[in-house]
């Protein structure tokens, strides 16, 4: 494409240097599409960007920055705000398109204005950052690092979103076995001070989890990255080896609490051995010789939480057909709002139990409930129910019979259902317990 070097130089000090000082007579533009180059050249001639369109915006914006055409960079920013950020019905595809343009501009051109515009706009339009970031980081193993950087910039002060995504990935994709390149990169990039100050409990949960995972690794680089991540959350001069000793002590403590071995599930172990998350508000119990360390609960009793998490151990000592155990979770929301969600287990036979996890409120008829998997066929069952911001897990006599991942539901649900599942990941405010068991249900006594 032939152009007038004088006209091009008037707009671009870079082109002026190339043609005047270095005596170049041509420029290679193979990195850009022909329509984008044509739009750029016409803008140089007319001082307007009338041919600027969404599909060529990225190339034109890049050329404006590479060749330092200041007025055109301003025009591109204006177009980004007015046209690209003009989402139709808050379509995920439209939001993703705008997000990727801002991400690439930041990565390749060190341009922050598009990122700031994107973050400000989605906040003003009420786009749920948690849902968007969860989808944006799908397929995390192959996500380019610029997308991880972009997710962190979108989350900003809501780093619990990033923590949830990371824990879900390490748990359900890497199966709590190791780290990979992207998970280590994210640990290095997380603003730990901001995370700890804003979400201290969730930061502590993530810290405990990554430490327990790192103990399985012999890689010095992984250990160094994890130690750097947790250094502000442990006592001075406390190393990973010190934490390993604490973890082993915590496991022994849990195993000695009853004849049943609860195991070392990461959700149930706090490296500082602070495992007593749940304290009963009601002390009324049936005292007809309950077993040592266990109490017979009163239905509709209420419990409060001292941690951002929920762990309860209970024991069923007999078979009571069609009897149910129900937990109503009161989950905190933005501005003090609350969301009620329930989890129910129903006994059908000795080894057949159904469950229900609510999306909206009242449960469906129990005939349509799915079954827990591989429930041991024994009379006495020890149950551990754990709710985190990522999942709800039920373990029976050491067998995981349910691992319900809220984040996968967010990813795979229809748009109008995602918020209901996302609310499940919120922090618990209180819990209400109900049961129709008459004699064979015991709750672990809190000491």
What is the number of beta strands? Answer: 12
**Which overall shape is indicated by the principal axes computed on the Cα atoms?**
elongated
Helix content: 40-55%
Strand content: 15-25%
- Main sheet, how many strands, which sense, barrel? 6 strands, antiparallel
Low-pLDDT windows of residues: 250-292, 303-309
Average predicted local confidence, pLDDT: 76
Q: How many DSSP helices?
A: 17
Strand order within the widest beta sheet: 1-3-11-5-6-7
What sequence of helices (H) and strands (E) makes up the elements?
A: HHHHHHHHHHHHHHHEEEEEEEEEEHHEE
Oligomer: single chain
Distance between the termini: 81 Å
Radius of gyration computed on alpha carbons = 28 Å
Classification by helices and strands = alpha+beta
Strand and helix layout:
Blueprint: H1 5-11, H2 13-21, H3 34-46, H4 54-66, H5 70-84, H6 92-109, H7 113-124, H8 129-136, H9 145-155, H10 160-173, H11 181-189, H12 192-198, H13 200-214, H14 220-230, H15 240-255, E1 278-280, E2 294-295, E3 302-305, E4 310-316, E5 324-332, E6 338-347, E7 353-357, E8 381-387, E9 391-396, E10 399-405, H16 406-412, H17 415-424, E11 428-435, E12 441-444
Antiparallel strand pairs: 1-3, 2-12, 3-11, 4-8, 4-12, 5-6, 5-11, 6-7, 8-9, 9-10
Helix pairs in contact: 1-2, 3-4, 4-5, 6-7, 6-9, 8-9, 9-11, 10-13, 12-13, 13-14, 16-17
